[in-house]
């Protein structure tokens, strides 16, 4: 598969404060890559570096193998960008901003424009300043996709969208993926990553901790164990547990011991309740978040 | 994009041009009556009690306020410099910086357009409005003056164009400083400070020889209105300095804007 977007050794400091350090990432053409991490992890910094909004301290960005800098406008033509906070010209109507958007591209965008306006039920007569957060988001999505980009960079795209519009949006992304569009999908909503992404990258404190395919994450076969017992402290000590959540007589931990050995060990204690459950992808992501 | 820049700055252009025209319209309507009355004699007598240096600072030593054209060459001209300068300062502060302050730059930057082009479109829109304002005021004053008195047309021509010399420097300097800032409110404060500071320095420099050097710190010195009134032409040295400064600041604006962090 061809690499559509490549980030090499990307480093960004804000004065002395670290934004991202030595971030390396390759997105294959036609994949949806989930980019997740807690607030301040460096997701938006990475995206702003890709979009050349801020200066990099180190590192390079390649689009289809070509070094991407501020002056490569022909590469900008194939990128669609949706920022997490959409700020548009409030004095314009929706129709005017769609016309304004169209004026920057050489090709005729009217067919795709009409399709997106209809799909997201966008009211073209409304003024931007009167749009609700959800309607602004829908307009932002339409603007990011209007020029049929080959690479989509989406930062928190579904915040503010109602569930029906979210589903419409997911379907649209899957359609785009089939057409070969590469999508960098930054989000906080972990279950949507599981739903639509092919791979996921987990970023924390400016460092990319792990890149894994969703398929492999499912195969990790991780279990969470919840025990309610008077003897929880004894269990923690004898099972040598390090990472656990303790709440009165309840303990929850990610199981790293062979399940048969665990059951054998637990049979030594008086247990009120025992729950062994498969970790959801959300649990796995949260494990990296912490 | 250029069309949008023209559209969004139109209201501001109309407002400032209207202020200037309204003031001059009042002057043109009142002056013929004022000249005929005894008030003008009183005014001339009153002016004689002022020290020569004070009169010099308003060009009153080489022009008479007993005609509307005389008034235009003295207080009127300074008023034009101040208003066109203020308009240019606000334009220079706003044009590029407003996109960052309103956070619309993230959207604008996503288009297939270079930062140099963005800056050039905005600079062009600003220049067009400044030139339009100066020409409009010039034509307005010309119509107002020729209907009531004879004027030296050559002097009038150069005087009418002289606000361009100061306004372009103020505009380009404001634009350049705005590339170091991220808030338009602060930037407008700085650029208006430059305009009014320049005005005060210009007045002060003519009052006493010991502080004459202050004129070199004032942008209004570049217009050299005294030279226009006396010789009916621009001071070529000042014209050269002014154009060089304008070009230098605009080039520096584009260079700095290309390196700026936009969010």
Give a brief outline of the structure.
With 290 residues, chain A is α/β, with parallel strands linked by helices. Chain A is built from 11 helices and 14 strands. With 263 residues, chain B is mainly alpha-helical.
Summarize the structure in words:
The complex is a heterodimer of chains A (290) and B (263). Chain A folds into 2 domains: 3-214, P-loop containing nucleotide triphosphate hydrolases (Rossmann fold); 220-289, Alpha-Beta Plaits, CATH 3.30.70. Helix content of chain A is 33%, strand content 31%. Chain A is built from 11 helices and 14 strands. The two termini of chain A are 34 Å apart. In chain B, 76% of the residues lie in helices and 0% in strands. Classes of the chains: A alpha/beta (290), B mainly alpha (263). Chain A binds chain B through residues 48, 51-55, 70-71, 73-74, 76-77, 79-81, 83, 85-91, 100-101, 103-105, 143-144, and chain B through 1, 4, 8, 102-107, 109-116, 258-259, 261-263.
Euclidean distance between termini CA atoms of chain A? 34 Å
**Domain count of chain A:** 2
Question: DSSP strand (E) fraction of chain B?
Answer: under 5%
Distance between the termini of chain B: 20 Å
- The CATH top-level class label of the largest domain in chain A: Alpha Beta
- Main beta-sheet strand count, sense and barrel state of chain B: none
Find the count of extended strands of chain A (DSSP E, 2+ residues). Answer: 14
Assembly status = heterodimer
**What is the 3D shape of chain A?**
elongated
Largest sheet of chain A: 6 strands, mixed
List the uncertain runs of chain A.
none
User: Which sequence of SSEs, written as H and E, runs from N to C of chain A?
Assistant: EEEHEEHEHHHEHEHEEHEHEEHEH
